[in-house]
Specification:
mainly beta; 13-stranded antiparallel β-sheet; 7-stranded mixed β-sheet; extended; disordered N terminus
Length: 365
């Protein structure tokens, strides 16, 4: 019987240490050992690689990131923090701070251990100070850079995101745009035209007031086409293209700039918002007005899902926009100008649908 020492010598592939291995088994074992050695070397390299030269010696992954909450007397424009072990600023110094105040849209500075207030710059743009508004209790990573701007600065590392409670940068286009069908102004929802060659603004009002009454644009749209939000104030003339980087597929927006025929507000907070339209024979649709209710009877309308109500005046535009209608006694997805299938009963089993005198009909094959 094998002792404990012998039992622990059992190796891969069901063989013991004193049993011969086939050439294939030995090759497999050598490959596993080599992969393990490579993984171990990589882990050791990560742990021991210096991040920066410091007055106290090299800062490693294990000791190079300092964490602290900002001081209670910090302001929206100036963070102060006390972090043991930091006696000077140096390139590559990393601090992780939990903020206690909402940051200012005009930018803010960080002063660690009284070593001096340094401006915070964004890692997303080469020459831009960080103007993103961060809410209370955000934990953010900052890296010191003595060369980016004169006198040094902190670089805030984050994703492309902003949170100001009502407006959020969420999903923006990068290069796609279409010429405008009409001259339009700020903060409009744009829809693909019936031929998909232009953007049709929700309205052409010249008012800059979010609560002004606006008549809906009567131009036909493609109800299955892209819907984007024009998120800036520059006036766009007819046949001119809005800048692609000002177009958003997902965004929290003020609905009144796009639809405000009557001044009615959104009543169902956190509820869906639809654009009611009148379908046309060619498959296009003419915009009517927004609603938060889908029909329970056949009203001859279609309903394009826009997004969800954020509050009484804002909606969050969603990326996908299914189109609904009420047909044959039930709510269903609208199929465009395709003919509706006739009602199907057990008596129609085995039949096929054909167009008879212009009407879809179940007939025997």
């Amino acid at each position: 019987m094998r002792n404990t020492k012998d039992a622990m010598q059992i190796v891969r592939f069901g063989k013991t240490a004193d049993e011969p291995k086939t050439r294939y088994q030995q090759a497999q074992e050598d490959r596993l050992n080599e992969n393990f050695r490579k993984m171990l070397d990589l882990l050791l390299a990560i742990v021991n690689t210096p991040l920066a030269s410091t007055p106290e010696g090299p800062a490693t992954v294990a000791n190079g990131i300092h964490f602290a909450a900002v001081d209670p007397d910090s302001t929206s424009t100036n963070f102060t923090a006390q972090i043991p072990g930091i006696t000077s600023y140096y390139d590559g110094l990393i601090v992780m701070l939990k903020n206690g105040v909402v940051t200012s849209a005009s930018g803010f500075t960080i002063n660690v251990n009284g070593l001096g207030a340094k401006p915070v710059y964004s890692n997303m743009a080469a020459a831009s100070a960080e103007t993103t508004i961060f809410n209370v209790n955000y934990t953010l990573i900052f890296v010191y850079d003595s060369k980016r701007v004169e006198g040094g600065c902190w670089v805030c590392y984050r994703g492309y995101d902003s949170n100001t409670n009502t407006i959020g940068y969420q999903l923006r286009t990068n290069s796609f745009s279409l010429p405008a069908s009409d001259k339009f102004y700020r903060y409009r929802l744009l829809f693909a035209s019936a031929d998909n060659k232009k953007f049709v603004p929700a309205n052409t009002s010249t008012s800059t007031n979010a609560t002004a009454s606006r008549a809906t644009n009567p131009r036909p749209i493609n109800p299955f086409g892209p819907i984007v939000y024009y998120g800036t104030t520059t006036v766009i003339n007819a046949d001119a293209k809005p800048g692609a980087t000002a177009l958003w597929q997902q965004y929290v927006l003020v609905l009144g700039y796009s639809f405000n025929n009557t001044g009615a507000a959104l009543t169902l907070t956190n509820g869906p918002v639809y654009l009611r339209c009148t379908p046309q024979a060619d498959g296009s649709a003419v915009m009517d007005y927004f609603t938060q209710q889908l029909p329970s009877t056949d009203d001859g309308k279609i309903y394009i899902f826009l997004g969800m109500a954020y509050d009484a005046t804002h909606i969050e535009l969603y990326v996908h926009h299914p189109v609904y209608c009420f047909k044959n006694g039930s709510l269903q997805l609208w199929r465009g100008s395709c003919p509706e299938l006739p009602a199907y009963t057990n008596a129609d089993e085995g039949k096929i649908c054909k167009i008879v005198n212009g009407t879809p009909t179940w007939v025997a094959p």
